[in-house]
């Protein structure tokens, strides 16, 4: 396992539901073991975007963390997504995740209310103050709304917090990332599969990967090749994954694509919850073909 509290290759794990749409905890245990023991992942991020966190209750979120920690917490880092649009709610989720045994927290910038950078910084620091767990900030302005991208100045201030240790970078701003990497001790993780190798090349540590749900060893292989000094092989492996990354992330949310592939493979997943809709037959065929090519 990586010496980072957030691992090196983290799957942004889907949340399994049963055919009726209820939380499938036995399925979650089975899936977590699969991703860790055979899927090349040394960390799992729960209750994030790919985990359909906007559709699960607080009780379901906590139950999922507890079940996965019990199943694989001795051999993988379990990171709980606790970010919401409200500070009080995020603090409550953070404390519940800590009690459930999570090893770290993922905290997205607050959304919808369009807070200022000062307000965003205070929100994230307040959540970090609420527990003893290390915190990964999630910078994903495409989802949290206009004006919510963390600035270099805000990231630099938050880096001074003793528990704010990492960033899941989905900002698509290499200049900002390079500046923060050069001026702080924050550990960076690519949150977009197409940027895992480019970000590693400028100093990121690893990834929080949607595609790792279905091709974890291939995702890990890109980083392994780069870290071994074989940059040409890393680039080759990265390019080989691009059609799968495109299929999984470009047309529908990642949870939809991953659950379609899991259904075809007999892995736990179940339906997506509304407002998401399941993948149609054409997309499922495209996904399956891209996966076959990517993993040989």
Automatic annotation (TrEMBL):
<feature type="site" description="Part of a proton relay during catalysis">
    <location>
        <position position="49"/>
    </location>
</feature>
<keyword id="KW-0704">Schiff base</keyword>
<keyword id="KW-0456">Lyase</keyword>
<dbReference type="InterPro" id="IPR020624">
    <property type="entry name" value="Schiff_base-form_aldolases_CS"/>
</dbReference>
<comment type="similarity">
    <text>Belongs to the DapA family.</text>
</comment>
<feature type="site" description="Part of a proton relay during catalysis">
    <location>
        <position position="112"/>
    </location>
</feature>
<keyword id="KW-0220">Diaminopimelate biosynthesis</keyword>
<keyword id="KW-0963">Cytoplasm</keyword>
<dbReference type="InterPro" id="IPR013785">
    <property type="entry name" value="Aldolase_TIM"/>
</dbReference>
<protein>
    <recommendedName>
        <fullName>4-hydroxy-tetrahydrodipicolinate synthase</fullName>
        <ecNumber>4.3.3.7</ecNumber>
    </recommendedName>
</protein>
<keyword id="KW-0457">Lysine biosynthesis</keyword>
<comment type="function">
    <text>Catalyzes the condensation of (S)-aspartate-beta-semialdehyde [(S)-ASA] and pyruvate to 4-hydroxy-tetrahydrodipicolinate (HTPA).</text>
</comment>
<keyword id="KW-0028">Amino-acid biosynthesis</keyword>
<comment type="subunit">
    <text>Homotetramer; dimer of dimers.</text>
</comment>
<dbReference type="Pfam" id="PF00701">
    <property type="entry name" value="DHDPS"/>
</dbReference>
<feature type="binding site">
    <location>
        <position position="208"/>
    </location>
    <ligand>
        <name>pyruvate</name>
    </ligand>
</feature>
<comment type="pathway">
    <text>Amino-acid biosynthesis; L-lysine biosynthesis via DAP pathway; (S)-tetrahydrodipicolinate from L-aspartate: step 3/4.</text>
</comment>
<dbReference type="InterPro" id="IPR005263">
    <property type="entry name" value="DapA"/>
</dbReference>
<feature type="binding site">
    <location>
        <position position="50"/>
    </location>
    <ligand>
        <name>pyruvate</name>
    </ligand>
</feature>
<dbReference type="InterPro" id="IPR002220">
    <property type="entry name" value="DapA-like"/>
</dbReference>
